[in-house]
Amino acid sequence: MVLVTRKGYFCAAHRLNNPSWSDEKNDRVFGKCNNPNGHGHNYTVEVTVAGSPPADSGMVIDLKVLAEIIEEELIERVDHKNLNMDVDFMRGIIPTAENIAVAFWKILAPKITEGKLYSIRLYESQNNIVEYRGD
Amino acid sequence: MVLVTRKGYFCAAHRLNNPSWSDEKNDRVFGKCNNPNGHGHNYTVEVTVAGSPPADSGMVIDLKVLAEIIEEELIERVDHKNLNMDVDFMRGIIPTAENIAVAFWKILAPKITEGKLYSIRLYESQNNIVEYRGD
Amino acid sequence: MVLVTRKGYFCAAHRLNNPSWSDEKNDRVFGKCNNPNGHGHNYTVEVTVAGSPPADSGMVIDLKVLAEIIEEELIERVDHKNLNMDVDFMRGIIPTAENIAVAFWKILAPKITEGKLYSIRLYESQNNIVEYRGD
Amino acid sequence: MVLVTRKGYFCAAHRLNNPSWSDEKNDRVFGKCNNPNGHGHNYTVEVTVAGSPPADSGMVIDLKVLAEIIEEELIERVDHKNLNMDVDFMRGIIPTAENIAVAFWKILAPKITEGKLYSIRLYESQNNIVEYRGD
Amino acid sequence: MVLVTRKGYFCAAHRLNNPSWSDEKNDRVFGKCNNPNGHGHNYTVEVTVAGSPPADSGMVIDLKVLAEIIEEELIERVDHKNLNMDVDFMRGIIPTAENIAVAFWKILAPKITEGKLYSIRLYESQNNIVEYRGD
Amino acid sequence: MVLVTRKGYFCAAHRLNNPSWSDEKNDRVFGKCNNPNGHGHNYTVEVTVAGSPPADSGMVIDLKVLAEIIEEELIERVDHKNLNMDVDFMRGIIPTAENIAVAFWKILAPKITEGKLYSIRLYESQNNIVEYRGD
User: Fold this and answer.
1) pLDDT digits (tens, 9 = 90+) for A23-73
2) Of A28, B122, E37, E130, which residue is most buried, by most CB within 10 angstroms?
3) Enclosing domain of residue F110
4) Does the complex come out with an ipTM higher than 0.90?
5) What CATH number corresponds to the domain at position D45?
6) Quick check: do C and A touch, 3+ CB pairs under 8 A?
7) Is E107 part of any domain?
C-alpha cells in the first residue's frame, strides 16, 4: 500500500457560533472566533488516497485526476466564500476545522474510485491542523 | 545600516468592493474578492526597521519592544476581525493588501523611535505579497 | 475520531553527553553535539489530540485551551533555557530529541482532559524530526 | 516506540512513459509528464526509523549515521541524474513518485540496523507527496 | 510606490553545458549540472510590479491579471519542459538560473502595463535563488 | 546586474550579555536572552552576490564555489558552537543577530572575487531576521 497526497488551497471567511447558545456562552467557548462580522483564513487541504500502484502505470491514482476532483468538489465550493453563509454542505454546521474536514471526507469518499480515501488533513493556520480518517 | 525584521500574524475577513461603482464593475474588477459575504486570509506582516546597532547593546531595536509594538498597534486591531466593518483605521478604505500595508505604515512610522521604519511587507496568501517603503 | 494538532515554538541550548562514558566515547557517539559549551536549536513541537467533536461545539478540544496548556506546561519551562542545566524535568536525562519528546508526553498526557493525547512531534531542525505516541 | 525522521534532498529529471503503450495512451495517462525530453523536480525524501532509544545514548539511531546512509545509498545515486537513464535501480521501472519510494524502501530496509525502517515519504513537488511503509 | 509580488511555479529539466567548450572544461565549470541526460528542478518565480495604487481600486495591478500573464507568458512555455530542447526563447542560451531570470524579464517587461516590472526572482532550489531588476 | 543568493544553515548557542553592565540592566535590556546558561537557535544565512553573468558560463558566481566558501568560512566556524565562547571572530562582541551579520560580512567580502558581496541576511528564528549590505 502506498499513500498519495495532493494539496489544495482556498481562502474563506467564517464565524464560530452556536445559535442555540447564549451570547455569553458563545463568547466563552469560541472567544475571538465568535466575532459577529467574521474573520477568515487561508486554508490548505491535504487529501490522501491509499492504494497499490499497478505495474503498467506506477500510479495509485492519477494526480491530475485527483487534483481535478479536489478543485471541482471542494475548492470551487469554498474558495473566496463565507463558510457560514455561502456553502450549501456546511448549512447548519459550525465551521470548525474539525467539521470542515469531516464534511470534505463525506464529499470526497464516494468520488475516489482509484484507490481509497485515507485521510483529509486541513490546515486552518500555521499552528492549527486537523485530520480525519473516516470512522 | 542594518535592517531588522520582525514578523506578526493575523487572520481576518475582508471584501473588495467600491460602493461608488456598479455591481457589474465591482464584479469585473474585483472578481471573487467581491463576494458579498466576504472571504478571508491568514496574513503575515513583516516590519523592517533600519538603523545602526550601538556597540553596547548590539541591537538596532530591541526585538521584544518591536514585537510588542506590532502586537499592540497592529495585530490586536485586526486579528479575528472583519477589515471592512470592525477596523477603525480602514474605514472608507478598500482593504486591498496594498491599502492595508500603507495604513500599517502610517500607524507604525511614528511609533518606531529606535531606528527608522524601512518597510512593511504583507503576505495576503502564499502567492500574493505587497511591500511599502514609504513615499 | 478527529486528530487536532497545535504547534508551539521554543529555542534552547543543549549538549549531548553521557557523564558515565569516556570523553572519547562521547565524542564518537555524539560528535559535534558533544561540544562542551553547547549549541542550540529553534524547536517546533506539534501536540496532537484525538477525539470526537461534540455536535454543539464542533471542537475536539478548544485550541485556545490547548495552546495555553502547551505554553504553560512546556514552552515557559524550556524557552530560552539550557536543557541540560535549567530544566527540572530533564535533570539526569540526555536531551536528545527522542528524550525531550518522551518527557513532553509525560507532562502533557495527564493535562489533556478533552480528547486524548495522541502524539508529540518535535522538530529539532529542518532535517531532524522525532515523534512519540506513548507506549 | 519513537519515530525518528531525517530528510534528504535531490534534484533529478524524469519522464513518465510506458514503452509497451501507444503514444496516444501514454499521452492520455501521463499527460505533460510524458514530454519526450523530460522535465524535473527538486525532491525531498523523509526517511523514518522506529525504535526505542536506549537509556545510555537516548537515540533510536544516530542521526549522523542515518544521514550518511541516506546520502550514500540514495542521494549520490539520484542527485543531478536522469531517473530514466542514469539510475541502475530504476531500470525498467516507470519513475513515478510511488515507484521511487518503493525502490528507496528496498534499498534502505536492509541498511537500517539500529531501529527498523518505518516509512519513506517522498515530496515530488510542493503539492504531490507519496509515502510507503512496506508491505 | 508599492511593490506587488505574485508567485508562479513550474518544473523543468535542464543541463548546463557550453557546446563551444571541451568536455573537460564543461565538467570543471558546471560539475554535476553538466550531466549529459540532464537533471531538473521545481522552480518558483516571483514577479514584482511597482506602482501607485489608484484610490478607486486600491490595486497597483489586478493580481488576477498578473497571475494570468505569468501563467500564459511564462509557465505554459516552461512547465514540464526541457529548458535546453523545448523552449524557444532559451534557444542558444545556457539555462542557468541567471539566464532564465533575464529571459523572463525580457518577456514580461512589455506585458506589464499597469505599474512597471520591478524584479524577477527565481528559486531554482531551496538554497539557490537569483534576482534580476533590469539594467 | 543579477543578484545570486545561496543559503547556509548552522545551529549554535548564545547569550546576550554586556559584561560592563549591571545584572539588572542586562536583564532589562536582553530579557530572556540573558539567561546565564545560554539558549540557542537554528540559524539560516543567505549570502547574496551581485554581478553580471558572462555569456560563456551564464553564472555570476559558480554556486558550488559560493557554497564552499560559505561552508568553510562561516558554517564550520559557528555550527554546533557556543557563539560567546567558541568562535574567535566573535570574541568581545555581543552575539546579537545584527553583530553576527556584520561579522560574517567582514569575513566574506574579501573572499568573493567573482561578483561582489551584496548582502548578508540572517534568520535567527522564524520571526527575527536581520540584513546587512555593508557601509
Assistant:
1) 999 999 999 999 999 999 999 999 999 999 999 999 999 999 999 999 999
2) E130
3) 2-14+40-132
4) yes
5) 3.30.479.10
6) yes
7) yes
